[in-house]
Design a protein that fits this description.
Layout: E1 2-7, H1 14-23, E2 29-32, E3 46-62, H2 72-76, E4 82-83, E5 86-87, H3 97-101, E6 107-122, E7 125-132, H4 140-153, E8 160-166, H5 170-176, E9 181-186, H6 190-205, E10 210-215, H7 221-233, E11 237-242, H8 246-253, H9 265-284
Parallel strand pairs: 1-8, 1-9, 2-7, 2-8, 9-10, 10-11
Antiparallel strand pairs: 3-6, 4-5, 6-7
Helix pairs in contact: 4-5
């Protein structure tokens, strides 16, 4: 089973919750698909048992042997990526316009390394993760690769917890398609509500079983009520409400999952939420 944890915006507590859920299931495999800020591995002692390179972008390359310095490429580039017959890889979008206008066929598009991809063995199982190159962007292909790597190390009945990217872009789409269920983490703010609506519509478009939880629900109970009403009207399974808890910040400072703190209110709420998820999935699969 694959459970993907996502959010409409950053800072909702998505990674904290994904990490906690993975600790509640023995031998869960983790896929850190929040590739712009991959933090799951920070909470564990471990070693990288496999490393490979991911090439996900193409950049213009000028062959000086054939370049006459006519600067036609510089004139046509809409991203100001070419100056004095030199390409700025940070600006180049790989559109290929320069290739079309070059009179000497001196320009070609070549793949550029986008990320290092790791399989990390920790004291609590496998993490499939990546480290992006500076200036590179996450892509759907990279997410697909990370999920594929996680599946290779998961037994047939093992749970795969996917920590997805925030937002509704291509990496998020690649994180949720094919998942057995998605958990959307939101917060009781106006931006939290609006971004929750957008990402929920995305999940509905792809026909994925979707759960929702409200993190720090008690900091704005009026906005929490609005989110609850929205879930009722749109048949979204509101699976849990997690209270604000100072222990969460302590757990982050100490690099320990929140479920290790027995007296934590957030810990208790997350455990109850996991029980609810299991019950709903069992009911829906009947």
């Amino acid at each position: 089973m694959e459970l993907t944890v996502i959010s409409g915006k950053g800072g909702t507590g998505k990674t904290t919750i994904a990490l906690a859920l993975s600790e509640l299931v023995k031998d869960a495999v983790k896929a850190d698909c929040d590739v712009d800020a991959p933090n799951l591995y920070l909470f564990y002692d471990g070693r990288d048992i496999r490393k490979e390179y991911f090439y996900g972008e193409k950049k213009a390359v000028i062959d000086k042997k054939f370049c006459s310095g006519c600067n036609e490429c510089e004139k046509v580039c809409q991203f100001d990526a070419i100056k004095d017959s030199k390409v700025d890889f940070f600006k180049c979008e790989g559109c290929g316009a320069c290739i079309l206008v070059c009179p000497h066929s001196a320009i070609s598009l070549k793949e550029k390394k986008t990320a290092d991809v790791y399989i990390t063995q920790t004291n609590k199982g496998i993490i499939s993760r990546a480290q992006m190159e500076v200036g590179s962007e996450g892509s759907g292909k990279l997410i697909t690769m990370l999920r594929s790597n996680a599946r290779k190390f998961a037994d047939g009945n093992a749970l795969i917890i996917i920590d997805g990217s925030p937002g509704i872009g291509c990496p998020v789409i690649s994180s949720i398609t094919g998942s057995d269920a998605v958990l959307i983490v939101t917060e009781p703010t106006q931006s939290g509500l609006e971004d929750f609506v957008r990402v929920m519509e995305l999940c509905r478009h792809f026909g994925v079983i979707t759960f929702a939880c409200i993190n720090k629900y008690d900091i704005n109970e009026k906005k929490t009520e609005e989110i609850e009403n929205f879930c009722r009207k749109n048949d979204v399974y509101l699976i849990g409400k997690i209270p604000f808890d100072d222990t969460v910040m302590k757990s982050i400072k100490e690099l320990k999952p929140i479920v290790f703190y027995e007296g934590s209110k957030a810990n208790q709420a997350i455990r109850q939420m996991w029980d609810n998820i299991c019950k709903y999935i069992k009911y829906l699969n009947q």
